[in-house]
Amino acid sequence: xxxxxxxxxxxxxxxxxxxxxxxxxxxxxxxxxxxxxxxxxxxxxxxxxxxxxxxxxxxxxxxxxxxxxxxxxxxxxxxxxxxxxxxxxxxxxxxxxxxxxxxxxxxxxxxxxxxxxxxxxxxxxxxxxxxxxxxxxxxxxxxxxxxxxxxxxxxxxxxxxxxxxxxxxxxxxxxxxxxxxxxxxxxxxxxxxxxxxxxxxxxxxxxxxxxxxxxxxxxxxxxxxxxxxxxxxxxxxxxxxxxxxxxxxxxxxxxxxxxxxxxxxxxxxxxxxxxxxxxxxx
Length: 282
Description:
With about 280 residues, the protein is mainly alpha-helical. It is about 55% helix and about 5% strand. It has twelve helices and three strands, in the order αααααβααααβααβα. The chain has a three-stranded parallel beta sheet with strand order 1-2-3. Helix 1 (about 10-30) packs antiparallel against helix 3 (about 55-70) and helix 1 (about 10-30) runs parallel beside helix 4 (about 75-95).
């Protein structure tokens, strides 16, 4: 159930909602701008964001929220989303006023999430990670590693496996893996278990092909098309994650390289995202 506008609420419910918003604002303002004189101890607590999140205004906020629920004007889910939308919006304003940038961003993201659920009836995501499919590594890609020649099973990353196999053998192994690792039955089971979303990690080489000196196999957009078709046929939604970025991955992932964010080739990532956007955004 979604709420089109606050004017849809009965007057008594709207009154409780506005009172709750006021108490949330009072609470967060008091936490971020305490009235007592600042001491070294209170300054240190504030510097490390260790304030006690307890004031009379918080208790009043919860009381007004209970009164709102008691009106019977809202479903429990809609009530919860409106309540936490108000709460995190108040925290956003208070954090922003103190220039607590990271806390302000987090509060705004949380407020917006509840706003969407309240006014657009968007349900929480229930998802699973499809790691080991298009970005491979020993743990998630066990079947691929077990099929390797015995002398290669100790390899720690996709880079090492592709380099050891050579171009033709690597292309054959990765193509078979990408086409067979997940199938229609897997996505039917996910849907039957109440999942709504999947995260599908990919690398830039899956989109643009390997960069200079890289042994990866790619591009593989046809195989990615097939994967997305299988997923969407079951009504699941996909979060495409550009997990593998050129020169900027951890050493325990798909590439056992001395890479860091300082070496990240941003332009390659942007080029890959542009291809994905043009190909899949509807």
